[in-house]
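#help-structures
NK: newbie question, is this the right format to request a structure? protein is Prefoldin alpha subunit
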Amino acid sequence: MSQQQTINISDLDVAQLSEVRKQLEDELNHLTNSFAQLKQAQAKFKACLENVNEVRPVNKDKTILVPLTNSLYVPGKLADPEHVIVDIGTGYYVKKTRPQAVKHYADKVEYIRTNVDTLEDTIQKKRDNMNYLTSLLQQKIQAETQGGPTSRGS
């Protein structure tokens, strides 16, 4: 079993504070990138939801553009407006009714929203820690340049 040791951050010297700041900055960058990726995924699922809502019985036998890739579409006719093909991930597709597809995508959007909210809170806490750490680091650097190296306990 490992024991956790608590260290008062104000007891660290400039080099140690700089290292902690760099680690915190790396974490913050990673979390921010994850946040952006989640927002993109959420936007894609919202677009899928809108697309499913556009498939209506009124549009049966009308010509539509069918996506083969993100940038390649071919014309086709809407034969069955009551069913859609849903990408459930890793290259698997499932035939679903329109209400089932709407529920599937709405659930995905909601799941991502809860993760985005949690991640947003985490990012804000990390930013607050970063601001505190930066302020402390600046104070230590200023103290060293004004009065020479400071030593603990003097």
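mod (FA): yep, format's fine, and the tokens are attached above. The CA atoms of residues 79 and 110 lie 30 Å apart.
NK: thank you!
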